Amino acid sequence: MKGSFIITLFFIGGILLGLFHVLPAGLDINRYSLYALYALLLFVGIGIGSDKESIAALKRMRGWLILLPVVIVFGALSGAIVAWLILDAYELKDIFAIASGMGYYSLSSIMISEVRGETLGTLALISNLSREFITLLAAPLLVKFFGKFAPIAAGGATAMDTTLPVVVRFSGKDYTIVSVYSGVVITILVPFLVGFFIR
């Protein structure tokens, strides 16, 4: 949760820098955002490739649980349709792109900002950051009312790292492998899904 607060502080800091025109006028923010995106993808790949626990979790998965990330993605996109019906100011593909971030706010918000503009990128950041906060704060209620897979589904991509502790605490240690597996697969899917909807 500390990491999420740090990200939020940087976001607020960026807003303040923009409001008070602290940065030079000729600075190409989009170009640097693109470089940051490339670096982020590189480090995500290194992290997944070098994490032996994540790879081992993938190898141990059996049965219908292999489809869990697919079900989570389907649920997120179904929720996006409901959001689109309420927020008809945006195109459905834009709402799909935001929902496809699956809690991976740092990557999805940059990708969406690059192609669809800062406003939609900010919505993606807030939406996906909220997903992580809700999972961290509401995990016991999610387990109570929706079952032990609920925090994993709510966490999305974060189920392999930042929301994993609450999954283990409230769903149980038996769900650790499932949570890591789901988070890894969804993390891999996010750039493809977001990229598909913002094309």
Strand content: under 5%
Number of helices: 10
- Unreliable stretches: none
**Helix/strand-derived class?**
mainly alpha
- Assembly category: single chain
Shape: globular
Overall pLDDT metric = 83
Largest sheet: none
* N-end to C-end Cα span: 32 Å
Please describe what this structure looks like.
The protein is mainly alpha-helical and 199 residues long. The chain is 77% helix and 0% strand. The relative contact order is 0.13. The mean pLDDT is 83.
Task: Please tag this protein with its features.
mainly alpha
Secondary structure blueprint with pairings:
Elements: H1 2-19, H2 29-50, H3 52-60, H4 68-86, H5 92-99, H6 105-116, H7 118-146, H8 150-155, H9 164-171, H10 176-198
Helix pairs in contact: 2-6, 3-10, 4-5, 4-10, 5-7, 5-10, 6-7, 6-10, 7-9
